[in-house]
Amino acid sequence: FVFFFCFFFFFFQAEDGIRDLVRSRGLGDVYKRQVFIEQKKFEEALNACEIALRVAEEISPRPLQKIAKVHAKKGNCYLQMKEFDNAIKAYDTSLLEVNDPAIKKKRNECAQLKKEQEEKAYINPELAEKHREEGNKYYRDGNYIEARKQYDEAIKRSPQSAVLYVNRALTWLKVLEHAKALQDIDHSLKIDPKYIKAYAKKGNIHLQLKEFHRALLAYEKGLELDGSNKECLEGLRRTEEEMYRTPPSEDRAQKAMQDEDVRLLMNDPRVAQMLKEMRENPQGVKASNPDPFLSKAIRTLIAAGILGMR
Known about the structure:
By secondary structure, the protein is an all-alpha fold. It is built from 17 helices and no strands. Helix 9 (162-174) runs parallel beside helix 11 (196-208) and helix 11 runs antiparallel to helix 12.
């Protein structure tokens, strides 16, 4: 109790000390800084904050909470003025006085706004196209590192281009960075869900990784958009050839079970009953089944490495 009494006594004493000094110098507008901000009178608000800080520095002991609050007000003012560097500086100064989580959050939000502003200002589709062309030249020459650097710059200049992410994915694929390649492909499809080339490349990557069930899904999605796409048709053919001649594998099966679609399929009562019958009467797995659902399920489980053909 004594601790809290002393804390609030000195807190309000510090506040009163600032007010008394301000009033004694005829600086009543200092406490209108929030009003100035709301009225978008930013210069007046900043001037009031500076006066308050000078007055506060004359008080002993230093009223840390109040000083931190004034610096935060400066940050808010600069934030509304879209002067993000000054806002971040003010928030940082406030945090040096008092490590307030709310101010830290505000500071991080300001930093994100600054980043977005800089990225937006950097966008230039014409320069992006030049970097893409340079990247293509390096790619054709087999210099995949330099090609990727050019695509990196092109993406910064045109971040909503689905084509650029596929181009960069191909450079990752050349150095066997499959995870990074897939990440770029997925981002490309997020930008343009109808980009058939991205589905084809996605299928190719999964095929290389022997993730046949994922390859099938990618090629089939591409063919839903264009049933005559040669790359998807050829990829689908090669996938079906490999998955039927590749024996089931525990590693492949465990990896496939990480996919929600495969887990749901395994938990389906119709599939569970089919697998039970196969265990009781092991005559091999037939790829065809009169039931369209079970026929597709068998195909998926073979592709996933869970079932094998005899």
